[in-house]
Amino acid sequence: MFSSISENLARLRKAQDMSQIQLAHAAGVGVDTVGRIERGERSTVRPETLARLAKALNTTPARLIGVQGDSAAAEERAADTILRRAITAESDVPGLADFADDVEVVGADQLARTAHRAWQAYVSGNHRELIQALPALLVDARRLVHDSEGDHKATAYRHLSAAYRLGAGMAGRLNMDDLAWTAAKRALDSARKSDAVEVESAISLRYMVWTLVRQQRDEEAEMVATKAAEQIEPRMLDRDQARTGIFGNLIFNAASAALRSGSRRRAEDLLVVAQSAAVRAAHDMANEAAIFGPRVAAFQLVDHKMRLGDPEAALRLAGRVPPPRGDVPAFWESGHQLHLAHAAAQIRQDQRALSYLATAKRLAPDWARRQPLATTTMQMLLDRATRRRGSEFAKLAAHYGLSS
Hints:
Oligomer: single chain
Distance between the termini: 21 Å
Helix content: over 70%
Number of helices: 21
Number of strands: 2
Radius of gyration: 23 Å
Order of helices and strands: HHHHHHHHHHHHHHEEHHHHHHH
Strand content: under 5%
Largest sheet: 2 strands, antiparallel
């Protein structure tokens, strides 16, 4: 059963025979902060405060908020509860408003730094860290919007849009597609009130397209993606790499949706457009705006061949993937390895498939173990094993959820 931070904090404090004053002193926080958390008056706690309290109680922030449990299923139930509370909070609904502090407003610069750390947790596949940080990030961004005016409010809306996008991405990874849609829609609503309407709206639409694909609304996803790409498409001599990256990501999403809906020719035409944009970008980029570049584009071609049911072509193309020229997130690299593992398994190159699975685990362990493709591939290898395969095989089976 999920336990809230108020219950966990009080239980751990009492178990260690500490008063609220002693805990506050040991953690370097105000005693009123400890009291409000334990009374349930503050269900959202900033990462810095959370880390201090956890250290004082000799535990982890994840266990303190309830997302480090005895099983993966228990952790995911806890994450579901925490994310839903954070994303669906409403300032104008009694009981659903939740500001991190009664009076403190975090400035835009500090909020941007916090958002960047949360983004880094997202791209590295560190789900626990992101779930710890995201509620406070959303609350602080909403508070800044509430307390700002004019241009400052527009800037605050930009930060709020980015926070909701992280919520959409995390919810999607946890297969909470309804919540991912809600977060993406709120991101778009905030983007349209921001100080960078065109760019922020295009980024938010990309997340909406992703949720549409997850909901198998492929024709709608392709339409939204292509229209959004038309609006953000870089013009002649435009060297804005962010615009190029956003455009390329949208075209990739459109191609994926087209292929899923059975339009192979249109998907391949769209991929040609995306490849041209990748050549123009010249370098790989990974930031809050987009993940794009020559290496990322090459990954997409491998993925396309896999979706067409041609694992041998996918493995041949993998040999022509260029080295990174810039930043490529660990979870993209890990995902590429999973596609190669599945391709190798399909043509019965089992040892090669195991090697790819091991690399995917090393690159982004928390992200990789949640991927259905990883579990499916490991299941194929496990079913074909006619004898004991050793401890490394067993460790991979356990990591991908097949040992119990």
